[in-house]
Design a protein that fits this description.
- 3 copies of one chain form a homotrimer.
- Chain A has helices at 16-32, 54-65, 98-108, 123-126, 130-138, 153-166, 189-200, 217-230, 241-244, 264-271, 281-284, 306-309, 316-335; strands at residues 43-48, 69-74, 82-83, 96-97, 111-115, 143-145, 174-179, 204-208, 234-237, 249-253, 291-293.
- Chain A is an alpha/beta fold and 336 residues long.
- Chain A folds into 2 domains: 16-151 and 323-335, Aspartate/ornithine carbamoyltransferase (Rossmann fold), CATH 3.40.50; 155-319, Aspartate/ornithine carbamoyltransferase (Rossmann fold, 3-Layer(aba) Sandwich), CATH 3.40.50.1370.
- In chain A, the strands form 3 sheets. Chain A has a 5-stranded parallel beta sheet. Chain A has a 4-stranded parallel beta sheet with strand order 2-1-5-6, with helices on both faces.
- The longest helix of chain A has 20 residues, at 316-335.
- The first copy, chain A, is globular, with a radius of gyration of 20 Å.
- At the A-B interface, helix 2 and helix 13 of A face strand 2, strand 4 and helix 3 of B.
Chain lengths: 336, 336, 336
């Protein structure tokens, strides 16, 4: 298995057995703790274009536990704005090009982790993840995606570890990715990554959303391919009740509509009638005693009720904790 | 003495002998330096809702000296805005609830230190310190108050250490908490904490302020109780000259008026006639060769003159230095 | 050679042999790596009034490699605004005085590094570098200039190391400091420092700029003195073609006009006709196979073309890397 020096940007580029190997190591780290320091004297740059609590803290804490240093760089807030278009005449707001930032950071650091949310204006542009891929193209060191427009692979890795902690065998276990109402138009990276990961791991996958909130068709195609390969079920629902039946995992998440991309006011109008898309105890009762999952941050009593979030089947804090262990397992393979 | 795993939020929850024990250890650390690393591999999250120079730097530096890592998180500046109301429907600005942030940070860190200034709109709300107490309620690890609406206990601990460095016996030593003019309405945390701490330690306490700037009555009650218990004097002055007489310590500080809370323009009008409430050499001459103290940041020639601030009796930088040693002493007891 | 505990603020205060000694040590560090930890347990505060990518990251990474801790403080963004005028009545925006910040930080840290760009309103005021010099005046520990109005000595030190990596003997080697067009009015610190440093090291120095963009006369005087002392050539050009001839190093940089200081709109009008002041392949062909240098961040296809920036003679990333090694060499001498 060749993991050293690779990037971690999409689920696609990583095989199931590679991801399972990372999760296995993460479970060991969680169990035995961090006495050895496999990344002693290593330096990882975290480049944040957007806010972060879990990612920032789990990386800083985890990297420290591995014996290394995390450097926290927040673009536009102490660090120069970055341009990503190739060949452009840079007479705009950005003072520096990703091309240069990536090569410069490569001189000081052993890995570069980048969070760059989509601009939510133009899906065709956003889905290229030009900034993260720009870093990957020009960096001499591994680049880790901390959430772009298309994927949030570190989240999905932690999620799959968490699911495996509860279900020894994932075959015929049904994960429902449940769209929820939210007062803002959110990115699709988390729903994409969990659907890609759970289908890759052989789970039955259901996705429930109002008709306007279909995921990107290229992503759906890959989810379908994963299910075909694993002989597992893929079901799409445009209503909630049917979708919850027999689910073993409810993964709640809001995301924006590609139909209304760049048009949040119109999306918001539509969403006024969609406030019933919330995870509550009544819906959870339709499931097979499902575990409740969410990547956080979660809007309480909007995406799910306090009762569900704080209930005995909620494993959200376990997901958060596993962010650290899976990232640590990943980093150790990439750069130790 | 049971100090392990406790929170450090108010003076009230800590006994005089416990605080004196912490100060004693801080004095040792200051004297012998930081060769042992009692917090090796520990991680402390610092959650700042407001600016900080001393607190941020003294914690980062001190925690490093103890062998541990401080993670610097600034809310609303790289980290999601946090909601603190229980049971609320989160359709506002905040993307995450303190309940979740506290439990998530507990997974990565061994202690959480929080600075959350009052909003300065509604004293009844502010005095609950809902954010800091929310962290304390939901965190699995000790929570340290880095300044809320009611108290700044880390400052008071450093202040009492500094006073004890100058006065072996605090009995009959008079500390004057001297209100000063300031162009802004400031929180009451520092005056509350130093008055609570100095009275708890048995000093005679005087407080001088224009009549509209009375401290919260629940705090005054506790100060009075402390003085009764210690058979020490408590005096309230609405003029300056009498107050300075025989003082051994002048603790200068501006704070806002509860009468005009949420109404800074009206308070400012009133304050136009209060610019003589400044610590100057003339007033210092009325004292018993008093030491001059201030928590910093200080507005020079507004709260006190350059002459006093830079004078031989000023011990403000010693206070600042002792922030580090007392915090280190505290952290070592709480989480080593 | 007495380097311990000194400040590093201007080229003037440092002798050529001292700088060469620092560069020699930096070359060793670059070659043999960072196994020894000469700054174990030391703490360096980085005070940023302005954005930074290279400086922030090279310092944090480098300081970590030396075994020490860098504390990242961003003024006005988590840290109080600072006043620098002496004796002022502080009733404005700034909550704290440099005098106090410097003395407080000295209690926690072993060195203070400060970036404070000019305000670009009044050159007479800016050129005093009052904030950086204020830190130097009041700090008890060494102060390092991370770029002020007049100089960026850490950049110049890295630049001279980079030049020395390519040219064993600097005598009769010609460095052209080439002004370029830029959509903003930029500080003069980098051009000042590289011209001062290269002339101090005995290179032939040429400076090309449109007539309105003359450097400060006090700086030009020092450059001239350096050239006289070293019996090297100083040439000033107001056109580009002649200037490039026989150059061994092209150092591209834009800077603002002292004539139009505080008047960026008027400067911008003038600059509309100066967009040909860009480094391109055609101009590079006029040189003696010159190396292309820039301090970064660079605006691509504005200051230089992609072809030049990414070309085989571009040594910009080497400059960036050498920032770390020279700073490490410097810090080791100042505070180990």
């Amino acid at each position: 298995m060749k993991l050293k020096n690779r990037n971690f940007i999409t689920m696609d580029e990583w095989k199931r057995e590679e991801l399972e190997f990372l999760i296995g190591n993460a479970m060991k780290l969680k169990k035995i703790g961090y006495k050895s320091k496999p990344l002693k004297d290593k330096i990882i740059a975290m480049v944040f274009f957007n806010p972060s609590l879990r990612t920032r803290t789990s990386l800083q804490a985890g990297i420290y536990k591995l014996g290394a240093l995390a450097i926290d760089l927040s673009i536009g807030q102490g660090v120069w704005e970055l341009e990503h278009k190739e060949g452009i005449i840079m007479d705009g707001k950005a003072a520096e090009h990703v091309k240069d930032a990536a090569q410069v950071l490569s001189k000081y650091c052993d890995a570069i982790a980048v969070r760059k949310f989509p601009d939510m204006k133009n899906w065709g542009e956003d889905k290229k993840d030009a900034v993260i891929n720009g870093f990957a193209k020009y960096s001499d060191v591994p680049v880790i995606n901390l959430e772009g427009a298309m994927e949030h692979p570190c989240q999905a890795l932690a999620d799959m570890m968490t699911i495996k902690e509860h279900f020894k065998n994932l075959k015929r276990k049904k994960l429902l990715l449940a769209w929820t109402y939210h007062p803002k138009s959110l990115p699709m990276a988390v729903p994409n990554s969990i659907a890609l990961a759970s289908s890759k791991f052989g789970m039955d996958v259901s996705i429930a959303f109002p008709p306007e909130f279909k995921l990107d068709s290229s992503v759906l195609k890959k989810i379908k391919d994963n299910c075909l390969l694993n002989k597992s079920n893929l079901e799409i629902f445009n209503n909630q009740e049917d979708a919850y039946k027999n689910a073993d995992v409810i993964y709640a998440k809001s995301w924006g509509s590609i139909n209304f991309y760049g048009n949040p006011e119109q999306e918001m109008k539509l969403k006024q009638n969609l406030k019933t898309w919330i995870v509550d105890s009544k819906k959870m009762k339709l499931t097979n005693n499902a575990k409740f999952m969410h990547c956080l941050p979660i809007r309480r009593n909007i995406e799910a009720t306090d009762g569900v979030i704080d209930g005995k089947d909620s494993i959200i804090y376990q997901q958060a904790e596993n962010r650290m262990h899976t990232q640590n397992s990943l980093l150790t393979e990439l750069i130790s």
